Amino acid sequence: MFIDRARIHVVSGKGGNGMSSWRREKFVPKGGPSGGDGGRGGDVILIVDANTNTLIDFRYKRKFVANNGVNGQTKNMHGQHAEHTYIKVPPGTLVKDADTGEVVADLTKVGQQAVIVKGGRGGRGNARFVNSVNRAPTFAENGAPGAERFLQLELKLLADVGLVGYPSVGKSSIISVVSAAKPEVAAYHFTTLTPVLGVVSLDEGHSFVLADIPGLIEGANEGIGLGHDFLRHIERTKVILHVLDVSGLEGRDPIEDYNKINNELKLYNEKLATRPQLIVANKMDLAEAQENYPRVAEYMKKLGYELYPVSAATGEGLPELMQQTAKLLLEHVEVPEEAEGTVVYEAKQEDDFTIGRDTDGAFLIRGRGIERLVAMTNFDNDEGVRRFQQLFKRIGIESALKEKGVQEGNTVRIGEMEFEFRT
Does 21 appear as a known binding residue? Predict the structure, then answer.
């Protein structure tokens, strides 16, 4: 089954907790603190796999959780870092933040990787807090929490050439003749419900990947018919083969079909209108096609296009068409472009925070640095609490709360922690 869209939930690993311990060895007086650091939590990384060609695996597993780091040990032994969690995706996968729609990564090359969420750092053991003032610290840090996010994965086929046109114009028949692909072929609309890829091998040893894109209709750019589900698969192609049924047996005029499909491509993405096209006149084995061909050829000539007569039924004209396609591919110059909507993330200062009011009137403090400090503080240790209070003042949160009108005994919330304000 071909699946080209998926929504997944990824969670990175929590850092291991630091250890608070003391050296107790014979003949070592005043051994001092010896707590080791916790290990780093695992990252969640997307990696492009050559053996994966759809997103079907994500129908059965949608949540990926990395391992946590190992806690620190006594005798200054640090906890082990967690292994990263790798998620295999096919080439051509566009990764978006499911909540904002922002592009996170555009994965096109085999082996390409993207770190989606980073694991939390390990907490420091009490041996790391020894200084000239405090020679025997009793506290250690908890590991930093991991991160989580929801992702929307969209697959855009990485084909060199795309076959486009109205349903039943013969696209599937053409790809079945020129390649080893075996799409379903029948005399009704939308026989092809999923894109089909085929490799075209030429006599000179050249080859290219040809994609049979399901039939488009008027209004496809607005999602009508198969619409957006498959229009995006044309975006990465270098050359478009625009197939027309010049016989007109479906009751449509091939010239009108040509203009309508090109308009749909343009409305969906302006860049598709400038993509090199070869116009293919199919079903030339029929008498009606022979009659219509001169009129269609004259119209295309005025637009600057040559019309290529072929018959998928007999194979006539297809070798010449494939040769011309290969020639056009060799002349193609790839223009590097940034993926649309790509966001450049700016690192925020760790001490940035905001103060608001919750629905019950409590003061609500948000900020990456302060929330991480709360998560990494062991509030069961008196010395750890005193350190938190010092940092709370140093960051400027206490003075900011007073400016906001906090009173003695008011409730203050930071992350999952809640306390009463005391001066």
Answer: no
- Strand, coil or helix: 38: coil
Annotated binding residue at 205?
no
pTM for the full model? Answer: 0.67
Query: What's the fold here for domain 161-331?
Result: Rossmann fold (3.40.50)
At 152-183, the pLDDT tens digits run 998 877 778 888 888 888 888 888 888 876 64
Q: How many residues does the chain have?
A: 423
Tell me the CATH number of domain 354-421, given options 3.30.300.350, 3.30.460.10, 3.40.50.300, 3.90.700.10: 3.30.300.350
CB 70 within 8 A of CB 310: no
Determine the pLDDT at residue 168: 80
167 appears as a binding residue in the annotation: yes
- The residue extents of the domains of the chain are 1-156, 161-331, 354-421
d(CA 337, CA 332): 15
**Residue that the structure tokens 């390649």 belong to:** 179
Low-confidence ranges of the chain (pLDDT < 50): 1, 183, 186-193, 217-228, 339-349
CA angle 315, 319, 322 (to 5 degrees): 120
114 annotated to bind ligand: no
CA–CA gap between residue 216 and residue 230 (Å, rounded): 9
Q: Is 284 annotated as a binding residue?
A: yes
Predicted pLDDT at 106: 87
CA 274, 277, 282, 284 dihedral sign is: positive
- Whether residue 57 is annotated as binding a ligand: the answer is no
Of the options 2.70.210.12, 1.10.1040.10, 3.20.70.20, 3.30.70.100, the CATH number for the domain spanning 1-156: 2.70.210.12
Instruction: Report whether 213 belongs to an annotated binding site.
Output: yes
172 is in an annotated binding site: yes
Is 74 marked as binding a ligand? no
